[in-house]
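Working notes for the structural subgroup meeting. M.R. asked for a predicted model of this chain before we commit to crystallization trials. I am recording the input and output together here so anyone reviewing the notebook later can reproduce the run.

Input as submitted:
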Amino acid sequence: MTRPTVAIWKFASCDGCQLTVLDCEDELLAIAEALDVRMFLEAGPEELLDHYDISLVEGSITTAHDATRIRDIRARSGTLVTIGACATAGGIQALRNTADVAEYAAAVYARPDWIDTLATSTPIADHVAVDHELRGCPISKHQLLATVTALLAGRRLPVTSHSVCVECKQSGTTCLLVARGTACLGPITHGGCDALCPSIGRGCFGCFGPCEAVNADALHAAWREAGIVDDEWLRSLRTFNVGSPEFVSAASGFDVSVAVTMSAPVRDDGGDRP
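Returned structure, recorded in token form:
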């Protein structure tokens, strides 16, 4: 049986989701035996083919060259799966979408005229058709393996629609917002992380982006009732999935100057999180 050819591509990102592939550890050899990986710069292979059965794409589109390149990759790919918050929502670099990019380039670079960049950071789906997406910053190893095995078996790709709150209930984790007044985006965040942060007493940071049905007004009211200030609300929405339409809508009407302030969230005990 011919193994499906696979390419793993990088755009504007930190490489963390690509590293999740290598972090599969015990399953890595089985994956290598089942797939014919031809393009994966993080691990070594670099073979440009006319067609790949499966393409995994990490990162957002931030340059005109990237926009052209992703269209070429789409044309070469049978199934295209975006992996991680950068690819699915523009990533933390989408903070530029609410700022003056030229002003920042002038402040950072000695020759800003050498910098060729777009004014926005946008997800892959804004440019080409995407067959499936894996959320997260980084993605879940278990969701990645489930997706790969589904593609190999010709099964329907796994889709999660519940929020992080459901995973807290499944694991028996006490609601941090209700019990401690801790800032938490769990009620409006897509599940898939097994409620990692709440399970260790930290509020959800929204790494997996907005869930299927976002009721931001109700959550914002609950935060206010718990004494959490509006600056914290905006700062929390302007992180990993700042470019997602649901989080953009939830943040509308607030002072945008807070958008680029990456101070740490406040603990329930009043201290600063690392």
